[in-house]
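Supplementary notes for students who missed Thursday's class. We covered one full example, reproduced here. Read the sequence, then the structure, then the short commentary at the end.
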Amino acid sequence: MQRTIVQPPMPGDAALAELKHWLGISRPNEDETLEQLLDASLTICEAFTGKTPLRQTVEEVIPLAGGWQEPVSRPVREVTGAELIKADGSREVIAALTDALEWRISGSACVQLRRPFEGQGLALQLVVGIAEDWSGLPAPLRHGIIRLAAHHFRHRDGTGETSASAVPPASVTALWRPWRDVQFG
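Structure (token representation):
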């Protein structure tokens, strides 16, 4: 499946303030760097847990196949739209979603076509995320994101053993592990 972020998550000023407090930074000269580290930490959290921490809108293209299909993004809050991708690549909005699709949402979504379609695929617009905003994010996820961003900030110029690695520190993964979706098969 092809996934595109339509509206990215917005950690906001509260997340930046929390990270600056954790690092003991009071001036705004590092804000842009810290915001980028928060964005990267959110992405790493999603990759580790298999769940989108903060609300965002994504588009996923699913094949025009029968049976139940599960989008990659989770947890799905709602299906907000669908477009048929025609053979020539053009798109046609499906106005009556319930006539064309059947879906179940409980953490992850399952979608099934109610009627056959001709074309390349179906583009679903989904609102996903564990929390609506930063303050609604469960403490272990929020704290792990802050710790990871702080870790990367502190080790941004390091080399060797003091450099930040691609693997989150154990203190972060311990916070995120209970939220992790494990896929078998």
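Commentary. The first strand starts at residue 2 and ends at 7. The chain has two domains: 7-53+132-179, 56-128. If anything here is unclear, bring it to office hours.
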